[in-house]
Write a structure and sequence with these properties.
The structure holds two protein chains of two kinds.
Chain A: H1 2-39, E1 42-43, E2 51-52, H2 56-63, H3 66-98, H4 104-112, H5 119-129, H6 136-143, H7 157-185, H8 189-197, H9 202-213, H10 215-230, H11 234-239, H12 251-261, H13 265-289
Antiparallel strand pairs in A: 1-2
Helix pairs in contact in A: 1-13, 2-13, 3-4, 3-7, 3-10, 4-7, 8-9, 10-13, 12-13
Chain B: H1 2-15, H2 28-41, E1 48-52, H3 55-62, H4 76-79, E2 99-105, E3 108-112, H5 115-120, H6 130-142, E4 146-148, H7 156-170, H8 172-179, H9 190-204, H10 217-225, E5 229-234, H11 237-241, H12 244-247, E6 250-253, E7 267-277, H13 284-294, H14 297-304, H15 323-334, E8 337-339, H16 342-345, H17 348-363, H18 368-378, H19 380-383
Parallel strand pairs in B: 4-5, 7-8
Antiparallel strand pairs in B: 1-7, 2-7, 3-5, 3-6
Classes of the chains: A mainly alpha, B alpha/beta.
Chain lengths: 295, 387
């Protein structure tokens, strides 16, 4: 009897310990989502009269806002490019540095160093590098005799989205390198040695042994990259502000523009709810298809 | 500007024993987008609050958060202020809700004085007509410089330049009717399209910097200050933000006259900023006294000495002030009419549509007619009467 009594008391104490965290979570995460849900059925500019419009904001978002629809496609392209550059290169760097070549420590620090810069600083820096008139990239191209390749990288729809995606890749590849490096260290060397003893070449060892054992880390990396990609904001805001001609508009940026810059809080909230549901569904789908031992 | 303002606040407190003025300062973007709204919605409305003239004045006045100040500006008191400030201060009902403090020129054509400018501008003469302006740009280009540096990543930099050309071409009344969506007007009106074609022509002739749509206003300013570009269309803050050595070199001319009835008048893109008084303030008399004293000639002169462009006519910069600061005041005093930029004077959806179209025209992505027709379609919903 005393055991049951103690257990109940313990459970109650544990529950109370969780209350501050839960309250904070409700206040800063659930509360705003619910508030956005309420605001999304009103037409409101923040100071004037709130007018109930029902689902009109959602109908506009899903059927009558071509820029919002386009922003999802552009965000998907961004995610695809960053998957290759961030996760792909991150894995490649980690595998290369695992070989313990001379200078590996230096290169690890070099690849990881962009991670310590804030996104705003990264955006400003690369904005000047890519400037069409005095940017470093065009100057280098001209110096090498490839002046015809020089272009306004952020001023043309064809190159702006790719440029922002590559800058994002430059910033985050080091993070995924660190993630994969930790995963690679967990692969037992005796299994790798056994494969080599059986005559497997290094690419075969990597493809048949290392990569499957990295599956849980890869799943986490993909989850972070995809959901993080749909939460991107700052780099786009600083580098292109969604331009040129909405060619780098992404849902989060469009939502902020509508809600705050254009003072259409009801419509902006509806965009926020749609984006939240989309990211939530994406995360759920990914959790369903990831390997069972991905943790 | 901070130092004379703080001094004024201290003097006001000293002359009103027991009164303490609490200043809440925010970044411009934070303030305009959520900061001020949060103060009101959060139940701590300020007695007096800063505001940009035009659309924001109408918005806050319509919401019932602003005191009608019309009675404060009668007769001689009204004449103390530059006439160009008043359009910015009106609410939708035609009453004054903004106490004007500064007068701002939104877009003029800046250049740097010196030997190079004297050479290309034929003894430094500024172009009086659009044809002379084109000739000037051609000479600058032939000399290896970019004629005009425009940054339009943020959409307002180049957008305001295009709006200034449009205002000069249409005249203030027509410009206001078109962007105000007056019944019977269209954004793709032939005269509007013709004005936009002038801007497209600048791009087609190679008079603008490359990739205008991806270049920020800071980068365009850098192009200009490094003398890679000869002309930079932007507002008066170029001279007030410049350091002393740069400010001395800066001078400006207005968008040149355009050969049409309306285009032969001088139409300036300008804005007045100032303060609104909360309609339910418990300190109404004090708030009005604060603003009256702040806009006295003496206090405004102390602000002007720190680079401020005053809405008070008597507060002129002294002779030591940069030429650009004098020039701004000259423009404000001599312009035949003053209109507001799209993003401060008109419905934000109209502003969005216009700025998108302006960006496309500036960059040569679309022709003027196609861009303005798309803009007109975008604002159709606003033309329909609301239930």
């Amino acid at each position: 009897m005393s055991r049951v009594h103690t257990s109940k008391a313990e459970r109650r104490a544990l529950a109370w310990l969780g209350v501050p965290a839960l309250a904070l979570y409700l206040l800063v995460a659930v509360g705003p989502v619910l508030a956005a849900g309420v605001l999304s059925v009103f037409d409101w500019d923040g100071v004037g009269r709130m007018t109930f419009v029902g689902g009109a904001n959602y109908l506009r978002a899903l059927g009558a806002d071509p820029i919002f629809a386009r922003s999802f496609w552009q965000n998907m392209i961004y995610v695809l490019v960053t998957l290759v550059v961030e996760v792909g290169f991150g894995l490649a760097f980690a595998a290369a540095l695992q070989a313990k070549l001379p200078g590996a420590g230096f290169f690890r620090a070099l690849f990881f160093s962009p991670m310590v810069l804030s996104m705003v600083v990264v955006g400003l820096l690369w904005g000047f590098v890519l400037n069409p008139d005095f940017g470093l990239l065009n100057a280098a191209l001209r110096r090498m005799g490839w002046g015809s390749a020089a272009r306004p990288w952020l001023g043309e729809e064809g190159s702006a989205l790719l440029a922002v995606s590559l800058v994002s890749g430059w910033r985050f590849a080091g993070f995924y390198m660190a993630l994969f490096a930790a995963g690679l260290r967990r692969v037992p060397t005796e299994i790798l040695d056994a494969a080599r003893l059986d005559g497997a070449s290094e690419p075969v060892v990597f493809g048949r042994v290392t990569a499957p054992m990295l599956a849980p880390v890869t799943a986490v990396a993909l989850l972070l990259c995809v959901t993080g990609g749909f939460q991107a904001f700052d780099l786009f805001y600083v580098m292109t502000n969604g331009g040129p001609f909405h060619g780098t508009e992404i849902p989060s940026l469009w939502m902020v523009k509508k809600a705050f810059s254009r003072q259409s809080l009801g419509y902006g909230s509806a965009l926020g709810v749609v984006l939240t549901l989309f990211i939530g569904a994406l995360g759920y789908l990914q959790s369903r298809i990831r390997p069972a031992d991905a943790g | 500007m901070q130092e004379p303002f703080d001094r004024f606040v201290r003097e006001f407190e000293n002359s009103h024993p027991g009164v303490r003025v609490e200043m809440i300062e925010m970044d411009d973007d934070v303030y305009s987008q959520m900061g001020l709204v949060t103060l009101f919605v959060g139940g701590t409305p300020p007695d007096v609050y800063f505001q940009w003239g035009g659309y924001q004045v109408r918005r806050w006045a319509s919401a019932g958060y602003a005191l009608d100040l019309t009675d404060q500006f009668q007769g001689a008191e009204k004449e103390r202020f530059l006439p160009s400030t008043w359009p910015s201060t009106l609410g939708a009902d035609g009453k004054n809700y903004l106490w004007p403090n500064s007068a701002s020129v939104t877009t003029v054509m800046w250049f740097q004085k010196g030997r190079e400018w004297k050479r290309v501008a034929k003894d430094g003469r500024v172009p009086a007509t659009w044809a002379e302006f084109l000739e000037l740009c051609e000479r600058i280009r032939a000399g290896g410089q970019i004629p005009i540096a425009v940054g339009n990543k943020e959409l307002w930099g180049g957008g305001n330049f295009v709006a200034a050309v449009l205002a000069q071409a249409l005249g203030g009344v027509r410009y206001d009717e078109v962007l105000g969506l007056k019944p019977g007007t269209r954004l793709d009106d032939p005269d509007v399209v013709q004005a936009m074609e002038r801007v497209a022509d600048l791009g087609a002739r190679g008079f603008l910097n490359k990739g205008v749509a991806g270049v920020g206003t800071d980068e365009a300013r850098a192009l200009f200050l490094q003398r890679r570009a000869a002309i930079h269309p932007i507002g008066d803050w170029l001279v007030t933000d410049a350091d002393e050595s740069q400010a001395g070199r800066l001078d400006a001319f207005q968008i040149p006259r355009i050969s049409s009835d309306a285009g032969s008048r001088s139409t300036l893109l300008g804005l007045s900023t100032g303060y609104m008084v909360y309609s339910r303030t418990a300190h109404r008399a004090l708030a009005l006294d604060f603003l009256r004293k702040m806009t006295s000639d003496a206090v405004q002169k102390s602000f002007v000495a720190a680079g401020h462009v005053s809405a008070v006519a008597a507060a002129e910069p002294d002779r030591a002030a940069p030429a650009g600061q004098h020039r701004m005041l000259e423009f404000l005093k001599t312009a035949d009419e003053t209109v507001l930029a799209p993003d401060v004077g008109y419905h934000l959806e109209v502003s969005d549509a216009f700025l998108d179209a302006a960006s496309e025209v500036l960059s040569g992505r679309r022709g003027a007619r196609a861009a303005m027709s798309a803009a007109d379609r975008q604002v159709q919903a606003l033309r329909r009467p609301r239930p």
